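Q: Here's a chain of 397 amino acids. Please give me its 3D structure as tokens.
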Amino acid sequence: MPRAEPEAPAHPTHAVGMADPYPYYAGLRARGPVLRDEASGLILATTSAAVRAVLAAPQARVRPPGQPVPPAIEGSPAGAVFGRLVRMTDGQAQAQRKTAIVAAIAGCDPEAIAADARSRTRAAVEASSKDSSAPPTPTDLAFRIPVETVAALCGYPAERASAFAALVGRFVGAISPIATPAEVEDAKRAAAALLDETRALWRRPGHGLAHAVADELDRARPGDEEARDANVIGLMSQTYDATAGLVGNALVALARHPDVAARLGADPGLAAGVVREAARHDAAIQNTRRVLADAAEIAGVALAPGDTVLLLLASANRDEAANPEPDVFDPARRDPVLHTFSEGAHRCPGAGIAVAIATGMIAGLSEIGFSPARIALDRLAYLPSANARIPVISGGW
């Protein structure tokens, strides 16, 4: 009997919500490293080498030329933040800001971050048992705890932690290309509130990550106050979807691989390896885009100005040329090639923070009685998104 072709989504970005998008990605890689998708009008970079080539191409920009901010939020507080985020801009100023932020983050202690996330996870579950309510779902915690942890790391007031998680969630809604007009308007209000909270930080003495970022940015680009405010908010907003997906996909991986879960139970030190392998094996951020500012030839394909390339990061992670036996989930994998956090000028500066938070959360959930073996895999679904793979997890308690 002929082998069935892998299921193909109506649009390449819809793959993020498929039960198993990886046969589809494998089919794309088999067709070529760079493909034109006539239905969507996108050019698809499918392999590790092709993704790296696009990310390294100076002609490939994060935003369309002449449109540094999505039109829906242009001229609003949300646009003011978005337009100065180092991961959403290009050029010399972006490089200087990125170097400063990386230097500030280098002073963070991953073990302390993991311990804080672990403690917050336990406390959130224990609080529900005290008032006899149902424990929060892992999905709820995966959105809430990372933002609270980063907010505390930055030095925001402890009593505002839960409020920050809500504000950041509302702001992130404006960035999504599938946001409704109502969500965009709500995001503008949330961005204004986040800017007010962030500007208040500078009126108080502090030694958190926000002040470290401010100091490094001031050395790199004196007087760049709007970028300072935006990128401190960015530390939280870029934590939101990406870390929620990382936590959720790591838990799903443990549910699907009980042998790994058993090893983790015997050796909690394996948790960081589980998280890193989950980031490769089932990427939280499955794709990103680049727009050609000038003509270029990448992987033998001629690209024209204005062409939009969809970099299939999740597909590149499963490229056998980059990672031997790529479909095997191996927490002890040596030197994995990982595209999930991007690379080069736009590599996520907080990748280490995200891994530390997810590691701490998995430890905290385990200690409080959550079992991946009890996750209802038959009811697993994924939140609507253009690029983030975030499972909605039921069961586990």
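Q: Can you summarize the key feature?
A: The radius of gyration is 21 Å.
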